[in-house]
Specification:
Layout (H helix, E strand, L loop, with lengths): L1 H13 L14 H11 L7 E11 L19 E4 L8 E5 L16 E6 L8 E8 L14 E9 L7
Parallel strand pairs: 1-5, 2-4
Antiparallel strand pairs: 1-6, 2-5, 3-4, 3-6
């Protein structure tokens, strides 16, 4: 009798019905909804971990317009690989929340993918900081770091200034 009970107890494991430590995590729709409400990210969209670099006006090859023909906006414009994150995508970057904005306010975490660059290939993102290398100081901790990036929507025309 004990052997039969032991065999019955082991049956779910043998059939793969029990979760193991190596099983893939299940989806969390409630958690996804909470994150989307807090971040503005679309529910169910992937979370990207992108290596960040910084750029500023005055740098070699950086003009006043992005690849869409829009004016680049300090602490809002990002350059991405269009194969990873298409242009005209509104992004939420968690690590930038609370950083100082040029007008003295605090950053809300929203950026706009409007630019591309020759060095931006694959899992990279280039954050536009403003005019001159001194504009990069508040973000230096993010330079070459992996950032958490969520797609928060799309926009038409040029992003808000």
């Amino acid at each position: 009798m004990r052997r039969r009970l032991a065999a019955l107890a082991a049956l779910p494991v043998l059939l793969g019905l029990c979760s193991s430590a190596q099983a893939a995590p299940s989806s969390d729709p409630i958690g996804d909804l909470i994150v989307s409400a807090l971040t503005g990210a679309l529910p169910g969209t992937p979370e990207f971990r992108l290596k960040a670099t910084l750029y500023h006006a005055g740098a070699k090859g950086v003009g006043a317009l992005d690849s869409l023909g829009c004016k680049v906006v300090a602490m809002r414009t990002v350059a991405t690989d269009r194969n990873v994150i298409p242009r005209r995508t509104k992004l939420y970057i968690k690590e930038t929340v609370g950083l100082p904005m040029p007008d003295g306010s605090k950053h809300d975490g929203f950026w706009y993918a409007t630019d591309t660059g020759g060095a931006i290939k694959g899992e990279k993102i280039d954050l536009y900081t403003g005019h001159g290398s001194s504009s990069m100081r508040p973000l230096m901790a993010l330079n070459l770091a992996k950032l958490t990036v969520h797609k928060a929507g799309e926009f038409k025309g040029c992003p808000p200034a």
